[in-house]
Amino acid sequence: xxxxxxxxxxxxxxxxxxxxxxxxxxxxxxxxxxxxxxxxxxxxxxxxxxxxxxxxxxxxxxxxxxxxxxxxxxxxxxxxxxxxxxxxxxxxxxxxxxxxxxxxxxxxxxxxxxxxxxxxxxxxxxxxxxxxxxxxxxxxxxxxxxxxxxxxxxxxxxxxxxxxxxxxxxxxxxxxxxxxxxxxxxxxxxxxxxxxxxxxxxxxxxxxxxxxxxxxxxxxxx
Length: 222
Known about the structure:
With 222 residues, the protein is mainly alpha-helical. Helix content is 79%, strand content 4%. It is globular, with a radius of gyration of 17 Å. It starts with a helix and ends with a helix.
């Protein structure tokens, strides 16, 4: 199912909009490579990665085509580094899931970013936060579904226990990407710099807290 949905997302991009800036794409792919392995364990093989911020940045700056390329590349790096035997069905699921999630996230962002207001930055902030929330839902629900099916558990139980607490990290990742955009475009540079610093600290703190909780749970399980 995810493979079909992911393939449909790619077809949509190829047919409707394959525009992207090669320079931006190169920088984003480099960032995706650097951030792909910076992750925190949530549930067994399920993780949240700094790649989230890079993908959201690609959505905000360059659109769907660039975001899909960056997301698929980043997920491939996650699975291929360090070198190991790839499990085909896991690769297909991950690529299909990320392509579907990124496409839904882009649609959510575009639906709000196109609204005309007196303050474009506030509109972009709302659009980015909504996109972050959609990205979180797409990622967490799809992974919860797979875990529930393979472990014969309730999907709602898996999501509530292991993924709901990750929502703030996704929103903070979106704010971080928004701060980077504001810095690049010279919109309220001083405020954007403060935002990036504050969000980076909060994002790091939230990831450390989640990692600490994961370690505690693993120790209890032993």
